[in-house]
Specification:
Layout lengths: L3 H29 L5 H27 L19 H28 L3 H31 L3 H25 L1
Amino acid sequence: MLSKTMQDALNKQVAMEAASSQAYLAMASWAEIQPGLDGVTNFFYQQSDEERVHMLKLIRYINERGGFAIVPSLEQPNITFQSLQRVFEEFLKHEIAVSESINELVGLALQERDFSTHNFLQWYVTEQLEEEALARTLNDKLELVGDDKGGIYLFDKDILLFRSAVSKDNNAAG
């Protein structure tokens, strides 16, 4: 059984995952109307879907543990960006914030001696390591490319490969 405190904290994370999904959906929509960013568009549509799965996993866990998961209302995410680099800077900032929130949840689970929730959250800890590594890698690549149109073309063409490369690196290290 979840404590009220843990239920409230997990519901806050549900809202954060939902907001992440919406933010990445907005990034995908923005990229889709930019010329030649098909890879970036697909990347952010996938990111949005992934965050929704994270939200659903939390909802099911809360309900299965005797709590009540709240489907959150959401604010309008940012829908326009000054540049591709800004999009990916926001992506990294967002993933760092999610990681910090997950770490707070893990701390609360330990404080409350809720070892089931602690165990459940370990998947999110691992996931956030991968997400932050991916966001950092993509930001580093864009920094190298700068405003070079040929570099941006190659970045866009290869972006979906970065996700699998980061996942493989993290799985090999762990």
